[in-house]
Design goal:
With 388 residues, this protein is α/β, with parallel strands linked by helices. It folds into two domains: 141 residues, Nucleotidyltransferase, domain 5; 182 residues, Nucleotidyltransferase, domain 5, CATH 3.30.420. The protein contains 15 helices and 13 strands. The structure holds adenosine monophosphate.
Length: 388
């Protein structure tokens, strides 16, 4: 059964075509800078540099690629029976993967105010998918859905209840990734009644406590800015700072949004949001870069302590996403001096986790330390297949 996964951003469209249930990837690619002169379309090893004016045109290019007789990937569009769409915000409405109907699209539209950068782009992807793959079932997989299991004591803010009734609460993000790696971790451990802490460390970053396969708490909240220090986002910050910037330093709300979203985090601390640059600078003796790495790892440690206390223990600590999967240094700093919690990393294994099936735990570590590459597209394909 062929399932197409679409991850639609405001000016990009990432796609993967899977043959399920074998989970064989037939095509993987993206269209980026859609609408700009420098746009490009890439599918497997095929690249075109002609301008791509819209998401619709990108999907037409994909169709041409798939139907090309020489390639023989599909003979007819009807072979694609399901299209799985990543949707960032499902609010309180969507607690699981959902078949898309007019009503579902209206609800996604109602949630625009909660995810103004993402949900409108996701809806464009859905509507284009419907137009081009009219015979296929369109299915929405929400980034927030996994976190809907977070109990009220962990998702409610201590502010007047009227706001809670209006939807002001912790939602959490990166749910598709946390769900994928926690399932994979449970497979490695060999049971599902586990206590895990999953660390999604990419440009955006979040930590999640996963108890018995369900999200129990997570570091992002109402929006995706708080929690861990990220590439350009501040992570946790005292609310008073915002009022000070506004009332005393005369910054406008939109300017503060921009500062906390795009000018903060590692970029503010070390001048770059690319961890590779920061590691190199730190290696060359740059003190700011070293401080940034220590603060980055330190914030993660605080969340590990918090979640271990909340769950009264931890079976495994999981690193994933660009930094989690690739940065030996960050894994080392996070796990350093954590033997009180039973976390002991093996330095040799940490250099090359793949050679050890991702298990980098030291001999005496009570906690299994795992590096598991995330695969959000595969998770979307699996959930789309399961629903169908
Ligand atoms: P993602 O958003 O998951 O693509 O992750 C992006 C982040 O991963 C960026 O900060 C990159 O600098 C970081 N990253 C990617 N590869 C490496 C690497 N080999 N070492 C350290 N950081 C890396």
């Amino acid at each position: 059964m062929k399932i197409l996964v679409l991850n639609s951003g405001s000016s990009s469209l990432k796609f993967q075509l899977f043959d399920m249930p074998q989970a064989k990837v037939l095509v993987k690619g993206l269209a980026e800078r859609i609408g700009e002169k420098t746009s490009r379309f890439l599918a497997n090893d095929y690249e075109i540099n002609q301008p791509v004016s819209s998401h619709k045109e990108a999907l037409h290019l994909l169709m041409d690629y798939l139907l090309n007789r020489g390639r023989q990937i599909i003979k007819d569009t009807s072979e694609i029976v399901g299209v799985g769409h990543r949707v960032v915000h499902g609010g309180n409405t969507f607690v699981q993967t959902t078949l898309i109907t007019e009503e579902v699209k209206n609800k996604i539209r109602e949630l625009f105010s909660l995810a103004p950068l993402h949900n409108p782009a996701n809806l464009i992807g859905i509507e284009t998918g419907e137009e081009i793959f009219g015979n296929a079932k369109q299915i929405a997989v929400f980034d927030t859905a996994f976190h809907q299991s977070i109990p009220i004591e962990n998702h409610k803010y201590a502010i007047p209840v009227d706001f809670y009734n209006k939807g002001v609460r912790k939602y959490g993000f990166h749910g598709i990734s946390h769900q994928y790696v926690s399932r994979e971790a449970n497979k490695i451990i060999g049971r599902t009644d586990t206590k895990l802490i999953t660390l999604h460390l990419g440009n955006g970053a979040s930590a999640t406590a996963v108890r018995n396969g369900k999200s129990f708490d997570t570091s992002m909240g109402f929006g995706p800015m708080n929690g861990l220090i990220m590439g350009t986002r501040s992570g946790d910050i005292d609310q008073s700072v915002i009022f000070y910037l506004m009332d005393k330093l005369n910054y406008k709300s939109a300017e503060i949004q921009n500062i906390l979203n795009k000018q903060s985090g590692m970029k503010a601390l070390a001048g770059s949001n690319d961890l590779r640059d920061i590691e190199t600078a730190s290696g060359n003796g740059d003190k700011q870069a070293q401080l940034a790495l220590d603060m980055y790892a330190g914030t993660i440690k605080k969340y590990i302590g918090n979640y271990t206390a909340q769950m009264n223990g931890m079976d495994a600590l999981v690193f994933t996403a660009g930094i989690g999967e690739n940065s030996q240094k960050i894994r080392e700093l996070v796990c350093k001096d954590m033997n009180y919690l039973g976390i002991e990393i093996d330095d040799t294994k940490n250099k090359n986790p793949e050679a050890y099936h991702g298990d980098i735990s030291g001999k005496n570590s009570k906690v299994q330390i795992l590096v598991i590459p995330t695969n959000e597209e595969l998770e979307i394909a699996k959930q789309t297949f399961e629903l169908m």
